[in-house]
Amino acid sequence: MGKVALVGKITHVPSMYLSELDGPRKGTRKDAIDGHKIIAQRCRELNVDTIVVFDTHWLVNANYHINCARHWSGTYTSNELPHFISNMGYAIPGNPELGKLLAKVANEFGVETLAHDATTLAPEYGTLVPMRYMNEDEHFKAISVSALCTSHYLNDSARLGWAMRRAVEDHYDGNVAFLASGSLSHRFAQNGLAPEYAFKIWSPFLEHLDQEVIRMWLAGEWKAFCEMLPEYASKGHGEGFMHDTAMMLGVLGWSEYQGQAEIITPYFGASGTGQMNALFPVTPVTGNAIPKAQASSADGYTAVSTRL
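Above: the chain's sequence. Below: its structure in token form.
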């Protein structure tokens, strides 16, 4: 029926917005913005109707949540970095029908998920920033999925991604893109040092760690990466505990995935964090490697299975 047409891991650094404005940072994130525009063009070429964003700025403490309001509009200022994103306007059409379908199938796969279509809840900037550059003309519908998950297992986030793929391919009439909106390493520069690290990674260890992960993605070493993801999320200060990455890999097929990354915007530093835009070709997969729903008391950030 439907098709998962495009999958990516994208940056949403707020300095992209600063890059638009007159001042010392003007033009400094052109590469990242251009990368978003390339991804948008790919979506158009693939006849994508809806972009689903796994948003590592949407914090939730229980369940998984889908913001699928019919339309969002307003003016946004970041509570986290109000000196970076202030009074940014946005208007984005939503897709409540698909959002409710994604939640329904996720629940059928044992991942408790709630869809919110009649809501005043606005998206966070992990969704708003990419939609600013990918969807300025409101060509695409969008859905935002909570991916800053404080009390969740990475296993379940991978299952959520796989369930969403099944929802699209088995029940939806249209083409969908899934984007994991979050960084690689995410150790912000210590307070007072942010200007010094505006274009740098916080430490050589984190930069080497990120570069090794990128090498694995380019080589298609997915079983090894899935095994190391929980420790990478911990030692790399993973944004949103890297639940967006687990969701993305669930969509792709987890450790059975056979594709290799395509770098759209090369790795770069931003306020100490490691960032990039990358796409992953969607390949056939059975889903046999998707982890079971996890129901133990073990630490969900330090244990994850690669097979059923």
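The longest helix spans residues 154-171.
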